[in-house]
Amino acid sequence: MKEIIRSLTKKLDVSEDCMLVTIVDNVGSAPRTTGAFMVVDKDGLMSGTIGGGMLEFQSIELAKIHLQNKTGELKQYRLRIEESANLGMVCGGDVDVLFSYISYQKDASLIETLTNHMVSNQLGWLVLSMDGMQVGYCYEDEIIGITGIDCNNLQAGLMKVGQDCYYVHKIENKSRVFIFGGGHLAQELVPVLSHLGFRCIVSDDREDFSKKELFPDAIDTNVCHYEQLMEYQAYYQVTNHDYIIAVTRGHLGDQYVQEFALKTPACYIGVVGSRSKIKTVQAKLMEKGFNEEDISRITTPIGISIKSETPAEIAISIAAQLILVRANLK
Which of 88, 67, 78, 54 is nearest to 20 (CA)? Predict the structure, then answer.
């Protein structure tokens, strides 16, 4: 979503209108699901995707027409199998695509507010009218851009208010990925996760492996003592939105990280290691008073099985697993 908002801001900053194209409903085998966005300007696609293929191509062309006419539309594609194949949807499906006209004169302050809130990770709601002509943004109990919406009763997806219908998209990124260990794997992993929208914090007990210059995509880096991580918790307050990954350089570091992680409500705990290392550390955890239910919270070996070997390949397998966890939490 940050890429989408960045593109909207870029166009509005130079006093140009653009179109926000959104899949607001789908049934069947559409290549992207509800909540997929793309931004289109007078020259075509700027950022994002609603799945590629002819569906996206035709949507871009229609968006350019609406942009020229300063109009919006809900376009409903009801597809038979042969039509679906032409639009890149192999097995057929129904797709509702909303074309929202974004005006630099009317919507610039709204997008600026939304951008500032995304930077500070505040909760907000993007509200799009189904005629494509109104864009609203709800935060706390205030809404700008659209009137008559109760910000306290919003829900993601299609929502009816009186006689009107809106598409509502929740904008929130409270989750963080705490990566303990700043070695080669972390150096490959952080850029990938950051590109996918995960906010990474890297910690190592060695200063040379916890420098911000080494992890420019991380939101924070620090030197920490693994055996004193409850002090770390006092500062960061790990929540059930957060992920913890242990990729330290040894058994003891991983053990300390897991002891710490199991005392937090983190939604995911992942550990790199060989079978012998895993067995050794888990035995130590049992000696420390953790039970099998506690240890079952730990995903180890971390990542999905793709026969990865290099740090770059392992980073991809971990990123894929976190994508799956995040999707299941929605």
Answer: 67
